[in-house]
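Thread title: Can someone regenerate the structure for this chain?

I was given the following input by a collaborator and told the matching structure tokens would be attached. They weren't. Posting the sequence so someone can regenerate them.
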Amino acid sequence: MRIDIITVLPELLKSPFEASILKRAIEKGLVEVHFHNLRDYSTGNYKQVDDYQFGGGAGMVLMVEPIDRCITGLKEEREYDEIIYMTPDGSTLNQAVSNEISLKKNIIILCGHYKGVDQRVRDMFITREISIGDYVLSGGELAAAVFCDAVIRLLPGVLNDETSALTDTFQDNLLAPPVYTRPSNYKGTTVPEVLLSGDFPKIEKWREEKALERTEKLRPDLLN
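Best answer:
Regenerated them for you:
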């Protein structure tokens, strides 16, 4: 997979990709992540990428021209499956969306900033708009990092145990069951006996029951 991220703050985005699972995925050659500073596509002396909105009102708007130059230049080099705009008014990111995007080959992510982007960018280029929640950030960079983490960890070979992602919360519209590790007895609090039994059919049945129980209690909306 190749991910091209367009941003006015590439330095804000880079650190998550220099550690942990994301770094390992890049080093293994399982994903390429490229950052494109939108100011590099501005032709003005001051590298301007934003301007006041027509009609008045508070907040600056990212201009269509530099975004057009960047996206058009990238599309001349390869075909893209999706051009995604990170925006609070997009469709909420969930596990199903992450699963779907993880199957793509090439994607572009545009990070919004200030008051957003000129609507013509959304009309001309964007194929999907994604939000990570009903709140507003200073820009789309942190949202893009969250989105990339959710997608990249699903790529084959990224996790040491590929079955781990299949049992994550939300994969089957259920919350994950409780998990335990050593010691089996800590200050009088013990691990459920079934998990120590070695009887894997019983263990699996217990996990399914606990997953359903937790979901009914904490997120009943997922069962609807």
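The two ends are 34 Å apart (CA to CA).
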